Amino acid sequence: MPSATTALDRALANEQEVLTEWVQLQLTSHSLRSDLMKESELREQSREFLSLFKPALATGMSFSTASNEWASVRDFLASISRSRAVQGFTPSETATFVLSLKQPIFNRLRKQFESAPSELADALWVTTTILDKLALYTSELYLKSREEVITRQQQELLELSTPVVELWSGILALPLIGTLDSARTQVVMESLLQAIVRTSAAIAIIDITGVPTVDTLVAQHLLKTVAAARLMGADCIISGIRPQIAQTIVHLGVDLSAVSTKATLADAFTMALRKTGSTLTPTVKPA
Amino acid sequence: MEKIPILRMGRFLLVTIQVDMHDRLALQLQDDLTDRIVKDRAHGVLIDISSLEVVDSFIGRMISNIAAMASVLDARTVVVGMQPAVAITLVELGLSLEGVRTALNVDKGMELLREEVAAAGRV
């Protein structure tokens, strides 16, 4: 439909006028969050989009917005979606940026084809297709940027939640806080084993005071970590087992007899000291 | 054909695996090591796998088998220097090498071996 594209091009001929109408529309349609974005910024974004949109349209590749001819438009929309995702816009507010351009264009097309309804329909169809594709593209990118944010936060949480501390020369402690799932256990296991190599520790204390629930899966993860540490030549002690958790473990039939377990971290530390051949004695204050 | 060298240190045999273990090499090591334990009347075997980056279930089982064979020949086995990635792999494969003693490095491994042999009453 080259005629439709030409018509669309003609509809956008007076760029300044279209821009004014479009920005006005966005301002009244509540898609602009004045709390998040200034009007001048929106005007600038709209102007830039139009200036990229027109040449892309002129290449005649109106149906393949994924092609190279549309690369600059796509890049621009990508940057807008990304910044709006970070600024806190909703997905519909982000997509409305492109979709709201329909009305100014439709108004102009209607004037052009007042006496030719079938051509008007053609031109409208082309416009809708292109703008919908671009709007969907912004939504996709919006989601992608949000997912990136979530992934990054998850990663940070993982790293934050698995500190390995050296309690004494040759004794490591791993205080676990929060629910243990497979991904976290993997990180826990890796960081513990790496710390064992780094500090050549003979004993590692895994403290589960901060683990809210222990089910068979968590117990299995713990046993795996203990087994891996043993393979590297370090003994593990599991400490911080709360009364309810002790009951749960027995009810579930989990066999922890192969691992040393202690009720508190203090008990585990005393045991570790004994195993490494160190003792702590209270200093007697002179009277 | 490449071979894994077996060094003798007093009453102990020292095996350092510094190449990628493949199945034939592992079988060869099993043959050589059992021969040497008998010939040298060794009391202990120390296997250093600190350069081993990749293991599969076969190699895991070979390590476990070698330890069991040495034990039949009345020699203690200590595996030292396992890499974290290797340890994780073995655990995920369900091979926790029960019955094999482990230590962090050669130093600690030797110490453990001496203790074990002394406890067994062989000096």
Helix and strand topology:
The complex is a heterodimer of chains A (287) and B (123).
Chain A: H1 2-11, H2 15-28, H3 39-58, H4 71-87, H5 91-99, H6 102-112, H7 117-160, E1 165-168, E2 171-177, H8 182-199, E3 203-210, H9 216-231, E4 235-239, H10 243-252, E5 260-261, H11 265-276
Helix pairs in contact in A: 1-7, 2-3, 3-4, 4-7, 5-7, 6-7, 8-9
Chain B: E1 6-9, E2 12-16, H1 23-40, E3 44-48, H2 57-72, E4 76-80, H3 84-92, E5 101-103, H4 106-119
Parallel strand pairs in B: 2-3, 3-4, 4-5
Antiparallel strand pairs in B: 1-2
Helix pairs in contact in B: 1-2
Structural commentary:
The complex is a heterodimer of chains A (287) and B (123). By secondary structure, chain A is α/β, with parallel strands linked by helices. Chain A has 2 domains: 2-157, Orthogonal Bundle (Globin-like); 165-276, STAS domain (Transcription Regulator spoIIAA, 2-Layer Sandwich), CATH 3.30.750. Chain A has 11 helices and 5 strands; from the N terminus they run αααααααββαβαβαβα. In chain A, strands 1-2-3-4-5 form a 5-stranded mixed beta sheet, with helices on both faces. The longest helix of chain A is centred in the middle third of the chain and has 44 residues, at 117-160. The mean pLDDT of chain A is 85. In chain B, 46% of the residues lie in helices and 18% in strands. Chain B has a 5-stranded mixed beta sheet, with helices on both faces. The relative contact order of chain B is 0.17. The mean pLDDT of chain B is 89. Chain A binds chain B through residues 186, 189-190, 193-194, 196-197, 200-202, 224, 227-234, and chain B through 79-80, 82-84, 86-88, 90-92, 96-97, 102-105, 108-109.
